[in-house]
Amino acid sequence: MRRRSLLGAAVGLAAPALAQPAYPNRPIRMIVPLPPGGATDIWARLVAEPMAALLGQPVVIENRAGAGGMIGAEAAKNAPPDGYTILFHIASFVQTPVVLRRWPYRPEDFAPIGKFGTTPLPFCVRADIPATTLKEFVAYARGKQLPYGTYAPGSSGHAFAQALSDLEGLDMVPVHYRGEAPMLQDVLGGRIACAFHSMTASGEQIRAGRIRPLATLGRAGIPSLPAVPTFVSLGYPEYFGNAGFIGLWAPVRTPAEIQAVLVEAFRQTMAKPEVLRRMAETDTIAQYLGPAEFKADIEAYLRFWQGLVDRLGLTAEG
């Protein structure tokens, strides 16, 4: 669709208004607050290409990693609210500030553009660890102070690995990374025993047998690996069935008419068969929501996460 027709569809402008300079008229920066090569980066690039075609301008990925995603999110908050900086993020958007007890931004500093979806997060061990089930792993890990990797402090991978350690009386030690890609390299290199991974970034290594999935978060399981049980099915607490979110935001003061253009471009992107096919290939579950529904989803997840962190007494150290 041409940019001019997208603008008219999204904003409902009358024909005379279309003669004015249209948004966008220069490239858009999409901040991804985690490093290249991880799942968030892969998803952002999947979205950026079709959005660029719809908007008629490049959508340029800028990886701004650090502080569990907070550096990139803060940069997006402080960017001019003109529609030329947007944020693509995962549930660490609210998770990390809650765990670190530090908010360089608040959720209300952003206008939700739309929810992308969610993904199962399997708990995996190195291939050389002698455990093919979670029960076997617990027996193996007891008393060893095994290091576990997290793709960001305060993330799902951090909280649920610590919950597993606490529930089973283990003494596992968190090692925090600036994203999944460097964490995966240390797992494969033998420096980290186990971690929660995404199928998007680590699925190839999982299917090749280089890391072994023992159980997964969420309730639906992993579509391409139905034999991997969920934690809930193994009798772990119900909160192991919760899934995070992936989505797109703009600074909250971005003009409503520009937000509407972005919302429409993202909505159309999420309806494209090629996007949905590529998501399915990486076990990413499409769950498109518009701005109002996504805002409610974030608020509900934030309440859940605050309760879980309080229950676990979770800090960046463990």
TrEMBL record:
Check the record and name the InterPro entries matching this protein. BUG, Bug_dom1
Query: Signal peptide: which range, if any?
Result: 1-19
Which keywords does this Swiss-Prot/TrEMBL entry list?
Signal
Tree of life domain: Bacteria
Pfam families under this entry? TctC (PF03401)
Name the PANTHER family on file: BLR1237 PROTEIN, TRICARBOXYLATE-BINDING PROTEIN
Name the family.
Belongs to the UPF0065 (bug) family.
Protein name as it appears in the record: Tripartite tricarboxylate transporter substrate binding protein
Upper lineage: Bacteria, Pseudomonadati, Pseudomonadota, Alphaproteobacteria, Acetobacterales
